[in-house]
Specification:
By secondary structure, the protein is of the alpha/beta class. The chain has helices at 3-9, 34-40, 54-62, 78-87, 98-107, and strands at residues 13-14, 27-30, 45-49, 67-70, 91-93. The longest helix has 10 residues, at 78-87.
């Protein structure tokens, strides 16, 4: 799914200057604990979260996350946005909650991107 389609589906607002036209999102994960994200997300995913601090951008950078979506209308501070711009990681905000945002994207065909547990 193109990032621009994801933004449209969740009625998102792009918070960064990173172009979104060519970004391909292969799946998504919803989480607020960055340790869970690092332990279980697959590369090329969108991360849906309510956590709005620079650690989210650092986690995205380490885990090869293609975009971060802040749910419930959350807005990161300017330093977090600037860091995301430096790292070319798009930040998006949606007014939908976590459950609803995940459902919208899943219904549109975007798979969950958590690693399988054994």
């Amino acid at each position: 799914m193109k990032l621009s389609e994801l933004v449209f589906l969740i009625e998102g607002k792009i918070l960064t200057e990173t172009p979104t036209d060519n970004h391909e999102i292969s799946g998504a994960m919803g989480a607020d604990l960055m340790s869970d994200v690092l332990a279980s997300i697959q590369p090329e995913a969108a991360l849906l979260t309510g956590l709005c601090n620079p650690q989210v951008v650092r986690t995205a950078q380490i885990a090869d996350i293609r975009a971060v979506v802040f749910v419930r209308g959350k807005q990161p501070d300017q330093s977090t946005i600037e860091l995301a711009n430096e790292e070319a990681i798009p930040l998006i905000s949606t007014d939908f909650g976590m459950f609803e945002t995940c459902g919208i994207l899943y219904a549109a065909g975007l798979p969950g991107f958590e690693k399988e547990r054994h």
